[in-house]
Design goal:
The protein is mainly β. The chain has strands at about 1-5, 10, 20-25, 30-40, 45-50, 55-60, 65-70, 75-80, 90-100, 105, 110-115. The strands form two sheets. Strands 2, 4, 5, 6, 9, 10 and 11 form a seven-stranded mixed beta sheet that branches. Strands 1-3-8-7 form a four-stranded antiparallel beta sheet, with no helix packed on it. A hairpin with a 4-residue loop joins strand 9 and strand 10.
């Protein structure tokens, strides 16, 4: 079992920045990756960015050049630096961990990001 706790969401104007944080606890020695997904009202949950344990990253095309995913020194924390936020970035952002040989998904409770003028 892995538990994920997110923080850092909020309300920001277009062009602004936010930083999300997620701390993983539990069976973290079996982590394959940590990352972020988001779900806007009426839409499916989608990948935003992930970082695998070796350090390679993957981003959605819509956030390339604006968002940066990184791991903390403890390797069981993950951050999402979001710059130049757009209205279409408004969503509930979920921390995700993929664990074990079957890459089982674990999810945080979600943190709301609202971009509005």
């Amino acid at each position: 079992q892995v538990q994920l706790v997110e923080s850092g969401g909020g309300l920001v104007q277009p062009g602004g920045s936010l930083r999300l944080s997620c701390a993983a606890s539990g069976n973290t020695n079996m982590l394959n990756s940590l990352g972020w997904y988001r779900q806007a009202p009426g839409k499916q949950r989608e990948l935003v960015a992930i970082i695998r344990i070796p350090g390679d990253t993957e981003y959605a095309d819509s956030v390339l050049g604006r968002f940066t995913v990184s791991r903390g020194n403890a390797r069981n924390t993950v951050y999402l630096q979001m710059n130049d936020l757009k209205i279409e970035d408004t969503a509930l952002y979920y921390c995700n961990a993929k664990v074990g040989s079957q890459w089982r998904d674990y999810w945080g409770q979600g943190t709301q990001v609202t971009v509005s003028s």
